[in-house]
Each structure stands twice: as C-alpha cells, then as structure tokens.
Write a structure and sequence with these properties.
Chain lengths: ~280, ~325
C-alpha cells in the first residue's frame, strides 16, 4: 500500500474520535466497573427513598439533622454537597478518567488502537467523550430522581421554587465530571500508577489544601466547582466548619472560566502525551 | 457498534431527565396542584390578598406544651392578667381559644397611616357576653353585610378607620379583632373570595409550613418601609424581600427562619454574615459544653436566593436553660465593694 493510499484511508480527528466513542461507550457501560458506577449513583436514590420512608412512617419533625428538622430543599442540598460534589463526581473522575488509557495498556490492547490509521490523540478524545456521556447519563438522572423524592418533603411548592437550583446543580455536576475526567485522563496518560495518584489527589490533596487559607486551593478542581454550587455548604463536621471559616468563593464566571481552562488544558496535554509517549507493555 | 441495550440505556436516561426537567419547568412557571392537607388554616379566607404579614399559632398546642409548663415554672405570669382579659372580653384563653391567624395590611397609598392589623381567633365564645361587655365599655354595634361588628372607641375625636378597634363574629366560633377598616375588608372577603389564598407567593410559604404549631410570613421590604427607619439604618438593611419563621412546640422548640433575598449575591452575603455569627457564637461557647448542643443544632441552609437557619432546643437543653434561669432568680444581689 502506498503512502498516498494510507493517507486517503486515514480518518480525520473528529471521525476517528466518534469511531472510538462508538466503540468505547458500550464497553464502558457494560463492564465490571459499571456495577460500581450503578452502586455509586444508586446510593443517593436509596438514601432519598429511606428519608422519604422515615418521614412517611413517623410524625412531622421526626427526621433530624444535628438536632434540627431540615426542610426538603435543605436535605436535597445536603445530598448534593456531601454525596455528589464531595464523593461521587471526584470518585467517578478518578476511576474512569485514569482508566481511559491505562486499561488499554494493562489489557495490552492499546497496540490494536495505535496501529489503526487514526490520530493517536483521537483514542483519548473518543474515550473521554464516552466517559462523559456514560457518567452524565447516570449521574444526572440520579440527581433528578433525588430532587423529586426529597424536595417535596417541604411541600409540593418546593418543586417549582427550587427548580432553578436543580438546573444549576445539573450544569455544575456535568462541568465537574468533565473537569475531573480531563484531569484524571491526563494522570492516566502520563503516569504508571494513575489510580493511586488520582485517589491521593481527589481525597488527599484537594480536601487538604481547601482547609488552609491562601492561594494553594486554586490548584484544585474542587475550589472552582464549589463556586458553582447554589446550595449553602452543610456544616456537618469540624472540617466543614473550618472550610466555611476560610471559604473564599470565586465568582461563577471565574469558576466556569477556570474549569473550562482546566478541562481543555488537561485534555490537550493528555492527547499530547498519548501522541508522543511510547507505551511499553509488560510481557 | 452501539448495542441495542446501550441504546435503551441512553433512551431511559434521557427520558428521566426530560420528564424531570419538564415537570420542574411546569412547576416553576405554573405551580404544582396543592396537596389537600397543605393549604393552611381555613381563616386565611378572611385575610386580604395584599397582607404584608400573615401569622398563625396553634394556641391549644402551645398551651398544653411542656415548654409552656416549664417556662411558667421559671417565669410565672401575673395571675390576674389572664383573669382581667377574661373579665373585659369574656374570653378565657386557656379554655376558649383553639388557634388564631393574624395579619398586617398596608394602608391605602398616600394615606400616611400606619399598618392595620387583625387577629382571627377560632374557639368557643359566648357572643352575647362579649357583646354586652363591649357595649358596657361604649362600643357601637353595626350590622355590615350580615355580620355584627362591634366598634370600640368610636367617640374618640379624629380617629381614622384603621385606628378604631373593632370585633366581629364572622361565623360561629370565629372572632375577628383588629382595625375597623380591616374587619370590614374581612367581611367583604367572605363574599368576594379575593383573599390571601389567591396570593401564590404567600401560599407557597404557607404550604411549606404544614406540621408546624406556629408560623409567620411577611414582606420584609414592605414592613421596613412602614417602620420609617432612619436613612442610615435603612441603607444597611439586607436586601430581603420575604422572610418567614415556623416552629413546632412540644417538649422543646424546633423551627426554621427563612429569608428570601433579592439576588443570589445578596443571599450569599447574608449566608456569610450568618455563618460568621454562628462561628463566632461557637467559638465563644467553646468553654460552655451545656450550650454546645444548641449551637450544633443551628443549620444554615438554603439555595439560590433563599437563606434558611434551622434550630432545635431539645427538652434537655430547656432543662439546662430553665435551671440557669432559676439560678439567676435565686442568686442574691450583693452590693459591689
């Protein structure tokens, strides 16, 4: 086959990305990791149903948080803060983002992708797109279900009143999944043990530096993501109290700009790493 | 390559999102049909739609609550006060009153008059006794659209309609007491139906108060405007449109304060202010473990433009507070040297 024929057969970056996306989405959805994903996103729904059952079974005011009876909207805000923002979004980013390239390396299947007539960077782009669609389609419906289970506890009027907050939540979580996914895709593309590094970053570095005043917290995704949250931060622990004490919330525009830059920058560096790096497969 | 089960998954996910967002959008613009048990007290039929403040108290629940008994132990009310009220009006608060709804309404534009108020008291009343007692004190009886209105102080010179105190029997077991103008409006509302239940903003608050023994909702801006605050003070007031408070009273008191700010930024500022106050109180109470549970129960919340602060004074905390109050009452005053 001549060089000219090969060039004709070589797909464009966008077409190759869509091919990889088409291939990766079912793989990602129906893998063993999906059981974990289902448990993680189903947890808040089960919790919301449990709250609803407790309220239905016991008289008004029976459900208390820190000794006070919270409203439906406040409970929903707590679920979004404590489960989605602080746990689900970072954990999905770590487990899926780091695995985009690392899984292909571990399974020794990356060679098959790299020998196709497609740009190497499109492998990462297609897989990242599949991650985004997969996580968004699981996390956002879970948030919507939670909203309709928990918010009406304070009266059905709450559904309409808090609707703008739901829209903001969905947008914020989608942006968060995109940013964390991109950061951990970069980690997965560059480092040998990406999962450990990812876990340390998400659950060590990020919550750690957020406790201290100063500029270091700007080196986290959580700082900008928390700037988009429409709910008040729940003060459920001493850590939260310190977080609130040192809270310095960036504006929405600044948060969105920073998250867009983080996502685009991380993806670009990850694609560059995939293009240039020689992946040595263990025999 | 996309398998059919992947396609089904995507369709189901998008369906949940679409239905959820569609329902939310309809609820946001049109409102949800009210639940049968969450439409508020029946007396709201007599409250004008433009009321600046609406409040409710389940008097019976408060009277039989352990909180009241504990408070009476520590701060006994003057024994003759309640008796005096009974002699004047023929109403025994302990036995005759079940619950009450109160409201404040703004005066007519440009009248320069203060806010007018009315209390709608539900219970068991001896109408003949009340009427004769009020007439004995110089009240005039007026028949207005089928309701008997007893206007007191009618002979006082240059009194506007909202400065005259009146009482009306709106229906069996329901007495309205308040400004003459508002009482007449309440009688009018009986027929017209243009009452506060047609005010969606107030009613959305009222529905959220279901299960509480006492609550109040009001327009903060309207009340502060009527308060005629000095310019400097008025400029420092937070940009709040609505405020509300609701609570349950039994062996303890649990409740929530809520304020709706004009913008999300104003709400964030208010949250920051409250957070600072709560944090300061926690720091101050570090050496007082007895106050710690009460401060821990303070929950700052809310989303968008709303700010909420929930609290709970448990029976144990009440015991500690009443013990402290008793201690203060018993402590002899020693002159400083």
């Amino acid at each position: 086959m001549t060089d000219a024929t090969l060039r004709r057969q070589r797909l464009s970056f966008a077409s190759a990305t869509m091919r990889i996306f088409d291939l990766s989405l079912p793989q990602m959805l129906w893998s063993r990791r999906s059981v974990f994903l289902a448990l993680v996103t189903g947890g808040p729904v089960v919790l919301a149903l449990l709250i609803r059952a407790i309220v239905a079974a016991r008289p008004a005011g029976a459900l208390q948080v820190n000794g006070a009876a919270p409203s439906g909207a406040a409970l929903y805000g707590m679920i979004v803060w404590l489960l989605y923002i602080r746990f689900i979004v970072p954990v999905l980013g770590v487990f899926y983002g780091t695995a985009l390239i690392a899984d292909e390396v571990d399974d020794k299947t990356i060679t098959y992708l790299f020998t196709r007539p497609i740009p190497r960077g499109s492998v990462l782009a297609g897989k990242y797109l599949a991650y985004l669609v997969c996580t968004i389609l699981l996390v956002l419906p879970s948030v919507v279900i939670d909203y309709f289970i928990v918010v009406p506890l304070g009266g059905r009027a709450g559904i309409g009143e808090n609707f703008p907050a739901l829209i903001k939540d969905l947008g914020m979580l989608a942006v968060g999944l995109a940013a964390y996914g991109a950061v951990f895709a970069l980690v997965g593309a560059r480092l040998r043990r990406p999962l450990v590094v990812g876990l340390v970053f998400a659950f060590g570095w990020e919550p750690g530096v957020m406790l201290f005043p100063g500029y270091v917290k700007r080196l986290t995704v959580a700082y900008y993501l928390q700037g988009l949250v429409p709910h008040a931060m729940p003060d459920e622990s001493a850590v939260s109290a310190i977080l609130q004490f040192f809270s310095e919330t960036p504006t929405i525009v600044a948060s969105l700009t920073a998250l867009a830059l983080i996502t685009a920058g991380a993806l670009w560096f990850a694609a560059r790493a995939v293009e240039r790096r020689e992946y040595v497969l263990d025999q | 390559m996309t398998t059919s089960r992947t396609r089904y998954f995507v369709i189901v996910s998008l369906l949940i999102l679409t239905i959820g967002l569609g329902t939310g959008l309809v609820a946001y613009y049109v409102g949800m049909p009210p639940a049968a048990s969450a439409t508020g007290p029946d007396e709201l039929r007599f409250v004008p739609a433009n009321a600046s403040l609406v409040a409710y108290a389940d008097v019976r629940a408060v009277l039989v609550s352990q909180v009241r008994r504990r408070l009476l132990d520590v701060l006994p009310l003057p024994s003759n006060g309640q008796k005096e009220f009974e002699n004047e009006t023929g109403i025994n608060i302990d036995t005759d009153v079940d619950h009450l709804v109160a409201c404040l309404t703004p005066p007519a534009q440009g009248s320069g008059l203060p806010l007018s108020g009315m209390a709608l008291v539900r219970g068991r009343f001896d109408e003949a006794k009340i009427e004769s007692l009020m007439q004995a004190h110089g009240a005039r009886v007026e028949q207005y659209k089928g309701s008997r209105i007893l206007a007191a102080d009618v002979h006082a010179p240059q009194r506007a309609a909202n400065e005259i105190m009146s009482l009306a029997f709106l229906e069996p077991g329901l007495v309205a007491v308040g400004s003459d103008a508002v009482i007449h409006t309440a009688v009018d509302l009986k027929a017209s139906g243009a009452n506060v239940t047609t005010n969606d903003q107030v009613m959305s608050f009222v529905k959220s108060f279901a299960g509480n023994d006492a609550w109040a909702v009001g327009r903060f801006d309207a009340l502060t405007a009527e308060a005629k605050l000095p310019q400097g003070v008025a400029a420092q007031m937070p940009a709040i449109t609505w405020f509300s408070a609701a609570g349950r009273i039994d062996s303890g008191i649990a409740g929530t304060f809520r304020a709706d700010a004009t913008t999300a930024e104003a709400a964030n500022n208010l949250r920051d202010l409250l957070r600072g106050i709560v944090a300061f109180a926690r720091l101050q109470a570090a050496s007082r473990p007895d106050l710690q549970p009460m401060l821990d129960s303070l929950q700052l919340g809310g989303s968008g433009t709303s700010v909420t602060l929930a609290f709970d004074v448990t029976p144990q905390m009440f015991d500690q507070l009443t013990a402290a109050l008793k201690g203060l009452r018993r402590a002899p005053l020693t002159p400083s040297k």
